[in-house]
Amino acid sequence: MQLKLNLKPEVNRQNRFLNLSKVLGLIGGLSLVNFPALAQINLATLTDIIGNNNQVFIEDQVAEVKEKATLGQEIRTEKARAQIDFNTGANGRMAENSKITVGQCAEVQEGVLIASGPANGCILGFATGVQGTTYVLNVDKNNQTNVSTGTIRVLEGKILLSSPNDPNNPNPITIEAGQKVSSLTSNLKLSQISIQRMTKQEYETIITGPLFQGFKTPLLNQDKINDVCKVLYGNCRPLGGEKPVRGLW
Description:
With about 250 residues, the chain is an alpha+beta fold. About 15% of the residues lie in helices and about 35% in strands. The chain has a 17-stranded mixed sheet that branches.
């Protein structure tokens, strides 16, 4: 059994307080958004680690399978991928070098999260309302400009995209399977967002890549994805059909 030493208790307490304050502020803003109640998240359990077992962290402490992140806590990966179960019955997977905060939603701070089932997500101030959707949230940070941009891709089902920063536009945007929105920034309004169709290559790159390779337990509704891909694009490569490619999540 691995012994975990907390050598910086004061720093860790401060970090937890800052994270909790950040999430409570986010929840306050998102109170304007009508989240599906069944998809509201307050607990995430680590269920699988692919790669270096010492490269997944909860609150900057090395985490092991079965450990839990509660409201306001952060889960982070480095040279490892991770699968998590949410209290809503949904599950998700984090790519390498990714970071999420557990709140009323799974808020992606950096990197990639795929979520499947009733799991609301947040990205750069935008909120996704779902019931049983499989979708991918991606946040890229430009280290030179310190500006983050986001992309949301829907693989199966649909999501409703809302923004508490755009109170004059209360109607959410519907994004359906095979569609995406990209170049999201924190100051963008809903009226400035355009929905794009994902190419077959883009869709297949996701479903044959690292987010679908090596995990012990399938994502919720994972069996529907190939059927959706065939409806959208014709014949598609099967899930997990390629070896992981470095640099692609």
